[in-house]
């Protein structure tokens, strides 16, 4: 399945396609369609959220638009594989928060509140709270 998906999308990194098929299965095409919806205004939606992940911005936008994700914690810990195993890193969290803020109309105070809440969740998960 994954090999066919990679072959069908030679313009997208194989690592990104592997990640999409791992976390979204046959719905990976929906994530790519979300990226294509905004291709002219946001081509970076097909780029990794940070240097340490293959998760892309389109996964975040898709979670908000099509899966009713409303919090940063929901996206990082449930809707994507981005933060389910370990803390995804500051760059990935900030980029995810930026994308969600744009989709949901968060002001800077809400964006920072969302980041602090997710950081608190990671501290609790790590047993450091």
Helix content bin: 55-70%
| Multimerization state | single chain
Main sheet properties: none
Question: How would you describe the shape?
Answer: globular
**Low-pLDDT runs:** none
Terminal residue distance: 42 Å
- Structural category is mainly alpha
Q: What is the strand tally?
A: 0
Q: Element order, helices and strands?
A: HHHHHHH
Determine the mean pLDDT. Answer: 91
Structure in words:
This protein is mainly alpha-helical and 129 residues long. The chain has helices at 2-8, 14-24, 28-37, 57-67, 72-79, 90-104, 108-125.
Helix and strand topology:
Layout: H1 2-8, H2 14-24, H3 28-37, H4 57-67, H5 72-79, H6 90-104, H7 108-125
């Amino acid at each position: 399945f994954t090999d066919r998906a990679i072959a069908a999308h030679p313009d997208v990194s194989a690592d990104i396609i592997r990640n999409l098929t791992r976390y979204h299965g046959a719905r990976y095409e929906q994530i790519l369609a979300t990226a294509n919806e905004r291709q002219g205004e946001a081509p970076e939606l097909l780029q990794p959220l940070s240097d340490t992940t293959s998760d892309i911005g389109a996964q975040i936008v898709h979670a908000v638009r099509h899966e009713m994700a409303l919090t940063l914690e929901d996206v990082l810990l449930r809707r994507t594989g981005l933060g389910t195993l370990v803390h995804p890193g500051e760059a990935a969290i900030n980029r995810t928060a930026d994308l969600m803020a744009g989709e949901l109309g968060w002001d800077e105070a809400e964006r920072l509140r969302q980041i602090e809440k997710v950081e608190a969740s990671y501290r609790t998960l790590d047993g450091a709270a």
